[in-house]
UniProtKB/TrEMBL annotation:
<keyword id="KW-0436">Ligase</keyword>
<dbReference type="Pfam" id="PF23572">
    <property type="entry name" value="GH3_C"/>
</dbReference>
<dbReference type="GO" id="GO:0005737">
    <property type="term" value="C:cytoplasm"/>
</dbReference>
<feature type="domain" description="GH3 middle">
    <location>
        <begin position="358"/>
        <end position="433"/>
    </location>
</feature>
<comment type="similarity">
    <text>Belongs to the IAA-amido conjugating enzyme family.</text>
</comment>
<feature type="domain" description="GH3 C-terminal">
    <location>
        <begin position="449"/>
        <end position="567"/>
    </location>
</feature>
<dbReference type="InterPro" id="IPR055377">
    <property type="entry name" value="GH3_M"/>
</dbReference>
<dbReference type="Pfam" id="PF03321">
    <property type="entry name" value="GH3"/>
</dbReference>
<protein>
    <recommendedName>
        <fullName>Indole-3-acetic acid-amido synthetase GH3.1</fullName>
    </recommendedName>
</protein>
<dbReference type="GO" id="GO:0016881">
    <property type="term" value="F:acid-amino acid ligase activity"/>
</dbReference>
<dbReference type="InterPro" id="IPR055378">
    <property type="entry name" value="GH3_C"/>
</dbReference>
<dbReference type="Pfam" id="PF23571">
    <property type="entry name" value="GH3_M"/>
</dbReference>
<dbReference type="InterPro" id="IPR004993">
    <property type="entry name" value="GH3"/>
</dbReference>
Length: 596
C-alpha cells in the first residue's frame, strides 16, 4: 500500500497508513517528552484535585511540578495499604481518584504474602490499548509481510475474585482480554491470531492451552510468529505439546475433539476449525515422536520469523532453552508494563536480548526516577527525584510513577539503566526488580520470604534435634516447569535419630506452604512451577563456600552467605557436596481468595 509521504517516519518507512499515524504519534510524544510529562501531571492533578489523598497533603489544587514534588511524599505499596483496604471494603468516596475505581488489578508483586491490589479506572484501558496499538507498526518496520499470516500466541486468563466491597480483583491481562477493547477489536491483517477468543478466555487452563495448541497446529503453515507474554509461558506451551501431542494428533486425524474439552463455547469454535486431516496428524506424530526436540518450533511452524516473548529481567534465564527449541530464532521483547501502569515499548524489537531497551511513553503516566545507589552506599535521606527528560545516560534509577488511577509518587521497585534516547525520551535497560531472590514464572520471592519459609520448615526437624545451620537457593530452569532448589546444611545432634527422607520431603512442602500466593498459584493452578527441592549438603560445605569467596577477593569480615546462587563454580561446588535430594510430595494450599 502506498503511504502518504507526509506521514513517513524517522523510524523507517511505515507499512501502511495506519502504521504511519502510529509512528507519527510516537515521534510527537518522544520529541516533546518533557512538555507531555508536564501536561500529564497537570491533567492528573486537575482530575484528582478534590480527592482525599491529595487534600491530605494540602496540594490545594496546584498542578505544577514544584508544588507537587514539595508536598507529596514518595511511597511504597505498604504506605497506601489503609486506603486500598478501604476501597476494597466498599468505600466509594474519592479517596485516590476522582474517577470510580473500576476494579483492582492483582500484581505479581506481593505484600505480606498476597498479591498487591492496584486500583484502576475505566479510562486506563484506553491507554493500555493505545500502547498495544503501537507495537505492530514498530514491528512492521523490521519484519515485512506480517499481514500475510497469523500469530500463534498462548494467552491466558486467570481466576478472578471480588473484594469484600464487591470490586473485581484480577490480573491486568485477564482484565484486558475480558474487555471489549480486546474481544471486539477491529480486524487488522497485521494482528490475526490462530487462537480463537473463546479459547483465550476459557478460565480452565488445560482446555485453554489444549485448544490454542490445536488451532496453532491446524494452521501451522500460516503461523509467522509464535509468542506468549513471558518466556516461561512459551516454554510451558512446548512442555504441553510434549505431554499431549498424541491426543492432539488423534483429534487432527479424526476431526473429533478430545472429550476433555467440555466448555461449550470453546468446543463450538474449535469444531468450526477442526476437520479430519490425517496427513497433518501423521506429520505432528512424526515430528513430536522424535527423541530430539531441538528446533521443534521451526519444524512444526516453519514460517516463524520470530518469537514474541519477554526475555528481559528474570526471564533472561530462559534464553538458552528458547534457543534450543527454536533454532535461535530472534526473540522480540516488545513492551514493558505492569499492573500499576503500562510504561513503554522497544523501538528496535529485533535486537539481541542483551541490547533490549524500552522507551517510556511520556503520555502513559507521570514518571520520576530515584537515583539508585549501589549496595553499601547509603541513600540520601531526602533523595531528589529526577524527571523523565532529565535522567542521565549510563545511570541507574528506580522507577516512581504517578498515575491517573491514583498512585502518587509510587515506587514500582524496578531498577532501570539509561542506555540512550529516542528524540528527547530516554530509553532504559531493565536491570532488575528490587529484592527478588528467586523467580520461575511471575512469582517473586524475596530474602525475607525465603528466610521465613526455611524457619517454618525447620520446625519439623526439632523433634529430631536437628537444625538448619546454613542455606542458599537457586531457581532451576533446566526442568520445565522450573523449580526452586534450596541447599541445606544440617546440624544433626543425635545421629541415631536423624530426620529421614519422608520428613525432609515434608520440609519441602512446609517451605512451599509459607511462600507467597503467587508462588502457590503457580504450583497449584498454573502448573508453571515444579515441586520445591531441598538438597542436603555435607557438613562444612558452607565454610568451603566462604573459603572460595575469600579466595576470589571477598573480605572475611564482610562475608555473608549468599541466599541465592547462580555462579556455575559455586553451584558445582554445592552439587558435588550433596548427600540427599528431596522433593515436595504434594502441592501447597492455594485458593483464589485472599488470606487477608
Ligand atoms: P505485574 O504487576 O505482575 O504485571 O508485574 C510487572 C513487573 O513485571 C514489572 O514491574 C517488571 O518488574 C516486570 N516486567 C514487566 N515487563 C517487563 C519486561 N519487558 N522486562 C522485564 N521485566 C518486566
Amino acid at each position: 500500500m502506498a503511504v502518504d509521504n507526509a506521514l513517513s517516519s524517522p523510524l523507517g518507512p511505515p507499512a501502511c497508513e495506519k502504521d504511519a499515524k502510529a509512528l507519527q504519534f510516537l515521534e510527537e510524544m518522544t520529541r516533546n517528552a518533557d512538555s507531555v510529562q508536564e501536561d500529564v501531571l497537570a491533567k492528573i492533578l486537575t482530575q484528582n484535585a478534590d480527592v482525599e489523598y491529595l487534600k491530605r497533603f494540602n496540594l490545594d489544587g496546584a498542578t505544577d511540578r514544584e508544588t507537587f514534588k514539595s508536598k507529596i511524599p514518595m511511597i511504597r505499596y505498604e504506605d497506601l495499604q489503609p486506603e486500598i483496604q478501604r476501597i476494597a471494603n466498599g468505600d466509594r468516596s474519592s479517596i485516590l481518584s476522582a474517577h470510580p475505581i473500576s476494579e483492582f488489578l492483582t500484581s505479581s508483586g506481593t505484600s505480606a504474602g498476597e498479591r498487591k491490589l492496584m486500583p484502576t479506572i475505566k479510562q486506563e484501558l484506553d491507554r493500555r490499548q493505545l500502547l498495544y496499538s503501537l507495537l505492530m507498526p514498530v514491528m512492521n518496520l523490521y519484519v515485512p509481510g506480517l499481514d500475510k499470516g497469523k500469530g500463534l500466541y498462548f494467552l491466558f486468563v486467570k481466576s478472578e475474585t471480588r473484594t469484600p466491597g464487591g470490586l473485581l480483583a484480577r490480573p491486568v491481562l485477564t482484565s484486558y482480554y475480558r474487555s471489549d477493547h480486546f474481544k471486539t477489536r477491529p480486524y487488522d491483517p497485521y494482528n490475526v491470531y490462530t487462537s480463537p477468543n473463546e479459547a483465550i478466555l476459557c478460565a480452565d487452563s488445560f482446555q485453554s492451552m489444549y485448544t490454542q495448541m490445536l488451532c496453532g497446529l491446524l494452521e501451522r503453515e500460516q503461523v509467522l510468529r509464535v509468542g506468549a507474554v513471558f518466556a516461561s509461558g512459551l516454554l510451558r506451551a512446548i512442555r504441553f505439546l510434549q505431554l499431549h501431542w498424541r491426543e492432539l494428533s488423534d483429534d487432527i486425524e479424526s476431526g473429533m475433539l478430545n472429550k476433555k474439552i467440555t466448555d461449550p463455547t470453546v468446543k463450538d469454535c474449535t469444531l468450526k476449525i477442526l476437520k479430519p486431516n490425517p496427513k497433518l496428524a501423521e506429520f505432528v506424530r512424526m515430528e513430536c515422536g522424535k527423541e530430539n526436540w531441538e528446533g521443534i518450533i521451526t519444524r512444526i511452524w516453519p514460517n516463524t520469523k520470530y518469537l514474541d516473548v519477554i526475555v528481559t529481567g528474570a526471564m533472561a534465564q530462559y534464553i538458552p532453552t528458547l534457543d534450543y527449541y527454536s533454532g535461535c530464532l530472534p526473540k522480540a521483547c516488545t513492551m514493558y508494563a505492569s499492573s500499576e501502569c503500562y510504561f513503554g515499548l522497544n523501538l528496535n524489537p529485533m535486537c539481541k536480548p542483551s541490547e533490549v531497551c524500552y522507551t517510556i511513553m511520556p503520555n502513559m503516566a507521570y514518571f520520576e526516577f530515584l537515583p539508585h545507589e549501589p549496595a553499601g552506599i547509603s541513600q540520601d535521606s531526602t533523595p531528589k527525584l529526577v524527571d523523565l527528560a532529565d535522567v542521565e545516560l549510563g545511570k541507574e534509577y528506580e522507577l516512581v510513577i504517578t498515575t491517573y488511577a491514583g498512585l502518587y509518587r509510587y515506587r514500582v521497585g524496578d531498577i532501570l539503566r539509561v542506555t540512550g534516547f529516542h528524540n528527547s525520551a530516554p530509553q532504559f535497560h531493565f536491570v532488575r526488580r528490587k529484592n527478588v531472590l528467586l523467580s520461575i514464572d511471575s512469582d517473586k520471592t524475596d530474602e525475607s520470604e525465603l528466610q521465613k519459609a526455611v524457619e517454618n520448615a525447620s520446625q519439623l526437624l526439632r523433634e529430631f534435634n536437628t537444625s538448619v545451620v546454613e542455606y542458599t537457593s537457586y531457581a532451576n530452569t533446566k526442568t520445565i516447569p522450573g523449580h526452586y532448589v534450596i541447599y541445606w546444611e544440617l546440624l544433626v545432634k543425635d545421629s541415631a535419630n536423624s530426620p529421614g527422607d519422608e520428613v525432609l520431603n515434608q520440609c519441602c512442602l512446609a517451605m512451599e506452604e509459607s511462600l507467597n500466593s503467587v508462588y502457590r498459584q503457580g504450583r497449584v493452578a498454573d502448573n508453571s512451577i515444579g515441586p520445591l527441592e531441598i538438597r542436603v549438603v555435607k557438613n562444612g560445605t558452607f565454610e568451603e563456600l566462604m573459603d572460595y569467596a575469600i579466595s576470589r577477593g571477598a573480605s572475611i569480615n564482610q562475608y555473608k552467605v549468599p541466599r541465592c546462587v547462580n555462579f556455575t563454580p559455586i553451584m558445582e561446588l554445592l552439587d558435588s557436596r550433596v548427600v540427599s535430594k528431596h522433593f515436595s510430595p504434594a502441592v501447597p494450599h492455594w485458593t483464589p481468595e485472599r488470606r487477608r
